[in-house]
Amino acid sequence: MNSRETVGIEERVSSLLASSSNRDHPLHIALAELFDAYKHQQSRMERLVHISDGFQRYSLLERQSLIDSYHRQLKRLDKVARISDRYQRAIQQSNVELRQESLFDPLTGLANRRMLTDRILSASDRARRHREPFAIAMLDVDHFKRINDQHGHEAGDRVLVAIAATLRDQTRSWDLCGRWGGEEFVLLLPNSGVSEAIPVIERLLEAIRRLSIKVKDEVLKITASCGLSEHKEGDSLLQSLNRADAALLDAKRRGRDRYEVELVSD
Amino acid sequence: MDDLCIPATASSPSVSAIWDTGLVQLAGDSYPENSYELFAPLIAWLERYLLREDDQPLKLELGLLYLNTSSVKSMMDIFDLLEEAHRGGRTLQVTWHYSPRNERVAELAEEFREDCSFPFAITPLNGN
Fold first, then answer.
1. Is the confidence at residue A264, as pLDDT, over 80?
2. In this predicted structure, what is the pLDDT of residue A202?
3. Rounded CA separation A108/B1 (Å)
4. CA B17 – CA B22 distance, rounded (Å)
5. What does CATH list as the number for B4-124?
6. Using CB atoms, which residue from A80, A86, A91 is nearest to B73?
7. pLDDT tens sequence across B6-48
8. CATH topology of domain A113-262
9. What is the predicted ipTM?
10. How far is B111 from chain A (nearest CA, A)?
11. Measured between alpha carbons, how far is A32 from A13 in angstroms, rounded to an integer?
């Protein structure tokens, strides 16, 4: 039944109930009560639908606003992550720079004293555990003070840089070259006894002799002296270095531009 | 009367907010263990300040360097708050200062600025 037909029946019933000729009809009272009950139910139904629609509209709106806020939050999260990642990359990069600064000599780019110390310590460790020998060489530029005094610090720095490059070129890939301080360099020659280290040192001193460093109109020739020692089991870091240093002094005393070996005396 | 003054620590920036002048300053690194604890008082202060009836301008001066993720989020909350106030007609201005030696800070400040329609300057510090 559609709503037009419903309205038709309501009007008919309503006018039948209102007509005075039907007042005494035996069904009149019952029909009048039924019609009131019907109208009451009808209006309840309309209110119910109305309220129900309201809730549905509200829930639709709420859902939409949740979707909007979800998308907003996603965008935000994206941005937080993006910015945060950039900060993290910046920190990582500064870690690399700090590591570089803390382990390498800024002038020559060679390992600094800290890195040399660390690596010599771990070489001693390996020597103890695997009976793997290693040699330490201490190298000092001859008459460096004279170069600085006569040609200035800039020339001195250039000499150091040239020696550093020679050290890198003339040593084996597994050797570690570092600047111990001033004009003093240290070489760690892992897995090498004195006999394996000597050819490396000879080659190195020869390459330094061949260096020509141009300072203004002059060409500087330089030499270096070197002390070599083999690590002795049980030696402390200081003892190993001291023995190389003693050999270096010996080389200086014997006329420079040469190497001496501190032999292990048992 | 109602000023905020939190000194910097190794992991949190200095924070100061002056009620009478409307000047708010944050400077330093920010990676506190609890970002909420650090930023909540500032956010509450800003909310109170932005409700002031006399419409006094707000000036936010930043000298922030490193921010961890939760600090990034807190700063975005602050900028959202300012954006809303700006759209509501408040006068406010943000300046993010950076050292020319650290251009990265400027790039990150630009990321923050993207969604902001209020005046937001990113300026190098003079002298280094």
1. no
2. 96
3. 59
4. 7
5. 3.30.750
6. A80
7. 999 999 999 999 999 999 999 999 999 888 899 999 999 999 9
8. Alpha-Beta Plaits (3.30.70)
9. 0.73
10. 7
11. 9
